[in-house]
Amino acid sequence: MKKLISLLYKDYLLLIRDVAGLCLMFLMPIALVFLMTFLQNDIIGKVNEAEISVIMLNLDNDILGNSIEKHISESESFVLTKSKNSENELRIAVARGNYMIGIVVPENASDSIRLNAKRAVQKGFKGEKYESKDSVTIHILIDPTLKTSFRNTLMSTMKEYSAKTERDFLLQELLAALNQSFPFMLGTIQLDGNQVNFDVQYALKDENAAVPNATQHNVPAWTLFAIFFISLSLSVGLINERKDGSFKRLLALPCTYFQYLLSKSILFLFVCLLQFALLFALGIYLFPHLGLPKLLLGDNAWLLLPMCICSSLAAIGFGIFIGKITTDHQQAAVLAALSVVIFAAIGGIWIPVFTMPEIMKIISKISPLNWGLNGFYNILIRNGTLMDILPECAYSLGFAVVCMGIALGYNRRRKI
Amino acid sequence: MSEIIIQVNNVNKTYRGSYTPALRNFSIEVREGEIFGLLGPNGAGKSTLLNILSGLLTFDTGNISICGRNMPQQLNEIKPLIGVVPQEIALYPTLTAVENLKIFGGIYGIISKELKQRMDNLLNYFGLEQSKNRQIKTYSGGMKRRINLIAGLLHQPKVLFLDEPTVSVDVQSKTLILDNLKEINAQGTTIIYTSHFMEEAEMLCSRVAFMDEGKLLCKDTPQNLIQNTNCPNLESLYLKLTGKTLRD
Ligand SMILES: Nc1ncnc2c1ncn2[C@@H]1O[C@H](COP(=O)(O)OP(=O)(O)OP(=O)(O)O)[C@@H](O)[C@H]1O
Ligand SMILES: [Mg+2]
After folding, report:
1. Which CATH class is domain A50-181?
2. What is the pTM of this model?
3. Chain B residue with minimal CA distance to A243?
4. Is residue B248 part of a domain?
C-alpha cells in the first residue's frame, strides 16, 4: 500500500508539473464543447425558425393563387413577401439573393382549371373521354444555395394545393351537372379536410427523456474526446520516464510493472472523471445562461458513472499501449493524437453516425469512442437502463484489457 | 575469509538484434565487505553486467546468485537488498530532490519518520541541504551525480551497484563521493563499482576485474596485479591488457 501511495504521489506530481498537458486535458475540451454546440445549435435553429424568405407574384388572384399564398404565409418555415412587380423583376430579386424562393402563379390559372373541370364533367356525362388542354404552369425560382430539403417541402406544399384545387373544381362542376339532371337539389358535398391526422413524436423509451439537440450530442461527444485525448499525455509520460532513466530505477526497486501501471491508471481515471464532471456541469449549469439548450440527464443519470469509468479505462489502456509500442515522444504524440482524431471522426463525435453512409455506419462500430457515445446516448436520450449500456461497457472494458495485456506481455519480453 | 555474497557463473548475454555477445562466459565472485572494481574500455560490458545484477536485464545462459538467492527466480527477494546507482541520472527531472527521495524511499517501504531522518543526513553530507527543494533539472552535473547516488543509498542496502559514480564531477564532489563510499563500506555494505579512473580504483578497491569485449581478462587485488605483471600501476596494466585501439 505504501508503495502504491508513493507511486500515486509521483504520478500526481508529474501530472501537475506538466502545464501544457493539463491545458490539453481541460481547456481544449471546454473550448471544443462550446464551439461545437454554438455552431450546431445555430444550424438546427435555422431549420426551426422562419428563415426561408419567399416572394410571390399572385397574378391569378383566385382560388389556386390565394390558397397557396395563404398556406405559405401561415407556414412556420417560410416568410412570405407579396410582389406587385413583373415576373422579370422577381427573378432578379431572387438572383440577387434577396429571397430564397420566388413563385409566380399566372393570370387566370384558377379559371383554366375550372374550365378544364367543366369540360371533363360535360364529356364524362356524354360517356366520352376528355383530354385536358390549357394546363397551368406555376414558375418557381430558387436560389442555388437553397437546401434540397426545403425545396422538397415547398414542392410538396404546392403540389398538395394545386391537386386540392383541381379536386374542388371537379366536385363543384359534378354537383352543378347533377343538379341539372336530378329531380331535387343536392347540397354541397364536402369533408372537413381533417379525416386523417398525423401525430409526430420522437421515438423515446418514455416521456421524460430528453429531446436530441446540439447539447445532448456535443457534451457527451466532447467529454469522450477529452477522455480519449489523455492517451496522449499518458503515452508521452511513459516515454519520458523511460527516457530520463527514472523508469529504470523503478524497475530496480521492489515494485512491479503492474503496480507501476496501476498507479498511472488510478490517477488518469481520476483525471477522466474530473473532465466528465466539468464538461457535464458546464452543460447543465452554464449552457442555459448562454442561450444554449440545457443538458438533461434523463431518469437514470447514475448510469453515466459506470459508462464513464469503462470508457476512461479504454482510453487509459490505449494510452499505455501507445506508450509501450513507441520509442520516442514525437512518435507517441503523433500516433496517439492521430488515432484519437480518427477514432472520433469515424465514431460520430464530429458528425453523428446516423448521418453517415451505410459503410461508415459499419466502420464506426470499431471506434471505442463510438461505444462510449452510444452508451451516453442510451442514458441521455433514450432513457435506457443498465441492461442497455452493458454491451458498450463490455466492449470498452474488453478493449482496455487487450491493450494493457499487450503492454504487459511486451514488457515481459523486453526489460527497460 | 568472509562469505561470497555475489556469484556469477558462465553468464552469456547477447542483446536482441545484435550479433556480438555483450558478455561471454563471464564468471566472478564477490565477497561480503568488498569494494569490487569492474574495469575495462567502452563497450566492454560493464553496464550490461551491472544491469543484469540489478534485475533490469535478462541474461541468456549461466547462473547468478546474490545474498544466497537465485536470479531471476528470487528477484523480488533480492531487490530490497540491493541499491542501484545507474550510469545515467535516473531521477524525475521535474520533481525536487526531496520529492524524488520521498518517492523512492516510499517504494522501499521506509517509514516516513525514518525516511526523513536519512534524507536529511544524506542531503547534509552531500551538501544538497540548501537546494533540496529545487527541481532536479535545475541542478548542475555534479549535483545530479550526488543526488543520483543518494537515491541508491536511502534504504541502506547490503549490496550497492555503482555504474561510474564519479564521471563528470569536479575533484571536490569526487572526493566527497569516494569518502562516503569508504564510509558505508566500513559499515558493512558490499560495493561493486565501475570506473574509467584507474588511480581511483587502485586506491578504493579491495579487488578489481579487467574485462574487454564481454570477456573477463583477469581479477585480483590491485597490489597483486601490479606486482605479478611488473607494471608500475593499474593504468599501464590496463593499456597492456586492452591495447590502444579505440572501442565503440
Ligand atoms: N540496448 C542495447 N542493444 C544492443 N546492444 C547494446 C545495448 N546496450 C549495450 N549494447 C552493446 O553491448 C556492449 C556492452 O555495452 P555496455 O554498455 O555494457 O558497455 P560498458 O562497458 O558499460 O561501456 P561504457 O564504459 O562506455 O559505459 C557494447 O558493444 C554495446 O554496444
Ligand atoms: Mg557503461
Report:
1. alpha beta
2. 0.77
3. B90
4. no
CATH of the domain at B67: 3.40.50.300
Q: Is residue B135 part of a domain?
A: yes
Which pairing describes strands B4-13 and B207-212: parallel, antiparallel, or unpaired? unpaired
Ligand 1 center to A325 CA (angstroms): 23
Please tell me the total count of domains within chain B: 1
Query: Domain span at residue B74?
Result: 4-242
Run of H or E residues at A234: helix A214-243
pLDDT tens, B132-181?
A: 999 999 999 899 999 999 999 999 999 999 999 888 888 988 999 999 99
| Long-range contact set of residues A358-367: C-beta below 8 Å, sequence gap at least 24 | A367/A343
Q: Where are the alpha helices (DSSP H) in B73-170?
A: 75-78, 97-107, 112-125, 141-153
Nearest-CA residue for ligand 1 atom 29 is B43
In angstroms, what is the span from residue B90 Cα to ligand 2's centroid? Answer: 14
The per-residue pLDDT for range A140-182, each reduced to its tens digit, is: 888 877 777 778 878 888 888 888 888 888 888 888 888 877 7
Is B247 domain-assigned?
A: no
Residue type, A102: G
Contact A374, A367 (CB under 8 A): no
Ligand nearest to the CA of B42: 1
**Residue B221 domain-assigned?**
yes
Q: Quick check: A415 and B57 CB within 8 A?
A: yes
The residue whose CA is least distant from atom 18 of ligand 1 is: B45
Ordered by start, the domain boundaries in chain A are 2-44+206-415, 50-181
The residue nearest atom 3 of ligand 1, judged by CA position, is B15
| Model confidence pLDDT, tens digit, residues A348-390 | 998 878 778 888 888 999 999 999 999 999 898 888 889 989 9
Query: What is the number of CB-based contacts under 8 A between chain A and chain B?
Result: 85
CA angle A151, A154, A157 (to 5 degrees): 150
User: Which ligand 1 atom lies nearest to the CA of residue B40?
Assistant: 21
Nearest one of B53, B60, B48 to B11, comparing CA atoms: B60
In one letter, which amino acid is B121? N
CB-neighbour burial class of residue A76 (10 A; exposed 0-12, middle 13-18, buried 19+): exposed
Establish if B58 touches chain A: CB-CB under 8 angstroms. Answer: yes
The closest of A5, A32, A43 to A341, measured between CA atoms, is: A32
